[in-house]
């Protein structure tokens, strides 16, 4: 494991005290499944995820030492998630999901993504993602320091541009 998640990523006071990122636990499975199913049209895997499929994913996730699924909490309530996995020195952001649509536009997921990228940069500066062209999050990623590096048939490849990236103070 690159970095143990034995304690949550807390944004330093003065940033946004009510936001905390913690490692996913088995009790988060239903939230993760519900959030992804509600927005599945924006993901490469867009089939409905059953409870059994989610249980198998969670079991495999806990076996992957270089895979981090952060649960975003606001005031103690799970409101979203951000995944980061490493393979051969490259970081891949995945499953950036705001689970509570009422919070859209409030900046929570921008802070969460930037906190995860700040955390990930400790291991690699080669961090990116793949996003479907039809996903409205393309602009969100660009606003949060990622730049398009390739265009494929139905998706873009984006990488963190550390010159434009605004890190978040984490503790």
Task: Describe the fold and architecture.
- There is one protein chain.
- The chain starts with 8 loop residues before the first strand and ends in an 11-residue tail after the last strand.
- α1 packs across α2.
- The protein has an 8-stranded mixed beta sheet with strand order 1-2-3-4-5-6-8-7, with helices on both faces.
- The chain is globular.
- By secondary structure, the protein is of the alpha+beta class.
- The N terminus is likely disordered.
Q: In this structure, how is the largest beta sheet organized? A: 8 strands, mixed
Widest β-sheet, arrangement of strands: 1-2-3-4-5-6-8-7
Overall strand count: 8
Average predicted confidence as pLDDT: 90
Helix content: 25-40%
Spans where pLDDT lies below 50 across 5 or more residues = 1-7
SSE topology string: EEHHEEEHEHEE
Structural class: alpha+beta
* Cα-atom radius of gyration: 15 Å
State which percent range the strand residues make up.
25-35%
- Based on Cα principal axes, name the global outline: globular
Calculate the terminal CA-CA distance, rounded to whole Å.
19 Å
């Amino acid at each position: 494991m690159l970095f143990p998640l034995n304690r949550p990523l807390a944004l330093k006071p003065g940033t946004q005290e009510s936001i905390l990122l913690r490692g996913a636990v088995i009790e988060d499975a239903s939230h993760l499944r519900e959030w992804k199913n509600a927005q599945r049209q924006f993901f490469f895997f867009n089939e409905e995820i059953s409870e059994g499929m989610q249980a198998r994913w969670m079991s495999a996730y806990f076996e992957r030492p270089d895979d981090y699924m952060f649960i975003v909490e606001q005031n103690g309530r799970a409101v979203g998630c951000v995944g980061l996995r490493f393979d051969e020195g490259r970081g891949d952001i995945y499953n950036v999901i705001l689970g509570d649509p009422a919070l859209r536009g409030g900046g929570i997921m921008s802070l969460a993504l930037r906190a995860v990228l700040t955390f990930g940069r400790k291991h690699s500066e080669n961090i990116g993602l793949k996003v479907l062209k039809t996903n409205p999050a393309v602009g969100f990623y660009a606003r949060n320091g990622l730049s398009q590096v390739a265009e494929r048939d139905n998706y873009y490849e984006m990488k963190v541009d550390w010159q434009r990236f605004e890190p978040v103070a984490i503790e």
